[in-house]
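Annotators were shown the component list below and the corresponding predicted structure, then asked to write short factual statements about the assembly.
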Amino acid sequence: MTIQFAPTLQGAAAPAVIVNGLRRAYGDRTVIEGLDLRIERGEFVALLGESGCGKTTLLRALAGLDPIQAGRIIAPRRPAVVFQEHRLLPWDSLWRNVALGLETPDARARAGAALAEVGLGDRLDDWPRNLSGGQAQRVALARALVQQPELLLLDEPFAALDALTRIRMHALVRELVANHRPGVLLVTHDVDEAIALADRILVMRDGRIAYEHRSHGNSKVARDDLLAELGVLSAHTPA
Ligand SMILES: Nc1ncnc2c1ncn2[C@@H]1O[C@H](COP(=O)(O)OP(=O)(O)OP(=O)(O)O)[C@@H](O)[C@H]1O
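Structure shown to annotators:
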């Protein structure tokens, strides 16, 4: 059993994904058990959790990359995914990398528009080897968004970037998500990144969503609560 694609969820008001009672195991080792999750279109959700708690396992299941052992994942179409590494094909030009999977005659034009959106509109015929890490991640974002996904899955896409580039990428992602309005699930280790970007922050523990935080503007309280949930800090320690 794997993800089900339900064309009935195609309407603009339909959720980006619904997960019920998900179980995912590697052999007899269960990593996700009884997990429920719903992400709306246009909603930016961040997923935190201790290393090894199953964040990437969940993201891969949502992407339809791995089988699941129980439960349901329903989405309108296959989600788009951006990983920590850009995964660009070195033998293809940038526009061909972005157009991968587009089988329309206007593929180059659409790839060009997506590259322009990430600030690389003058590099269509350039090669992945000529890009910095941040530029390569921007191409990976363009490749995801050119599909006009209802759900965008981001697995630590900024983790390998320097601090300044990461801040620029945050601004870009916020802008792209505001324009395209996919539901987003961002897996990150960075509490501050989650607070900066997400409308809703989830903490995963014991194979399910153990804590949910909705953005309320007081980022100091949010940070302390989240660090407490992650077992790093007692709640509301004085600064
Ligand atoms: N292909 C696999 N085969 C067997 N076990 C796996 C496989 N992939 C992951 N696991 C195990 O599943 C558990 C969850 O791994 P996962 O990578 O989802 O965690 P994570 O929360 O994303 O971790 P991190 O934050 O360190 O990236 C870990 O104990 C890991 O060892």
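Statements collected:
1. The chain has a mean pLDDT of 90.
2. Residues 26, 31, 49, 51-57 surround adenosine-5'-triphosphate (CB under 6 Å).
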